[in-house]
Amino acid sequence: MEGRESGDHERRGACPAAMAAGAILPAASFILLRRWRERVMPRRDPRVPFVEFRLLSGDGTPICVRRLGERLGEAVVVAHPAVTGQRYAPLVELAELLCSRFSVYTFDFRGHGSSGGRLEIGLQGPVEDLGAVVRHAREHGHRWVGVVGFSLGGMAALVRAALHGDLDAVVAVSAPPVFPDVEAYRRWLPLWSLFLRFLGARFRPVGPSGPAPLDVAERLPDVPLLLVHGAREAFYRREDLDRFMESAGKRPELWVLEGAAHTELAGREPDLLRWLEKEAEARGPAVDGNPPTDLDSI
């Protein structure tokens, strides 16, 4: 009898410890995951003055946009890769560098950051989102608008230029010419969507919508085009890039960056700024060298 009471007491004593462990372990795991996310996908706000506002995409999706730096006559739109958002630290650093010469716009594609909607497998939505930012820049007096797009952002910029012809220059960094194979992810869509949500993207598993860059390469307009390819690229094959170049008539300029992985510039950011400056200056100076007066508004 005494032994049984003692055993019951031991079991009752073990329950609080087990409950504490059950509460601590998930919390510790979540903290570790957050630290991992912050390390692989660091985010921050610009260290230069910026204003934040919202636009409506072509289908009514609200898009969060920022304009960095002073109001200058020429503009560059920086379009982020999938999942990261406009606060992705490497892109913010690039935007800060570019705003020494240009008005710089960054924004969250649908399903990212403070924008509405969800990201789908396809480019129809991202092309509309980019178009809303470009239209805003035109309406507020920017006489020259270039785009620097990374991965998803580069794909959207190439398709936008080919189908709408409203860009003055395009830099596509690690932009897959064709849609990546996502069949392996379709088998695990609920878990995959949950993982993307943890990283910061709201995902809807809908099939491809709209053409990929390779599909429209022959329709690219006669504007400056720069493709940046990392030698350690893992999200598309070099053969697909060569096919794109061939379809585009080999007009795009190509930089192959040794040691660079997906969306990395490997220290070539100053070269990219000089490339954009050269192309903007080739367009000719603004009237009397001053930016349009309606740049005083957002």
In short:
This protein has helices at 2-40, 89-98, 124-139, 152-164, 183-186, 189-199, 213-216, 238-247, 269-282, and strands at residues 50-56, 62-68, 74-79, 103-107, 119-120, 144-150, 169-173, 203-204, 225-230, 253-257. By secondary structure, the protein is α/β, with parallel strands linked by helices.
Describe what this molecule looks like in 3D.
By secondary structure, the protein is α/β, with parallel strands linked by helices. It contains nine helices and ten strands. The strands form two sheets. An eight-stranded mixed beta sheet has the order 1-2-4-3-6-7-9-10, with helices on both faces. A two-stranded parallel ribbon has the order 5-8. Helix 3 crosses helix 4. The relative contact order is 0.13.
What is the string of helix and strand elements? HEEEHEEHEHEHHEHEHEH
| Share of residues in strands | 15-25%
Low-confidence stretches: 285-293
- What is the helix fraction of residues, given as a range? 40-55%
- In terms of quaternary structure, the protein is single chain
Number of strands: 10
- Average pLDDT confidence is 84
What would you call the shape? globular
Task: Quickly give the structural class.
Answer: alpha/beta
Separation, N- and C-terminal Cα atoms: 82 Å
- Contiguous helical run count: 9
Strand order of the largest sheet: 1-2-4-3-6-7-9-10
CA gyration radius, whole angstroms: 23 Å
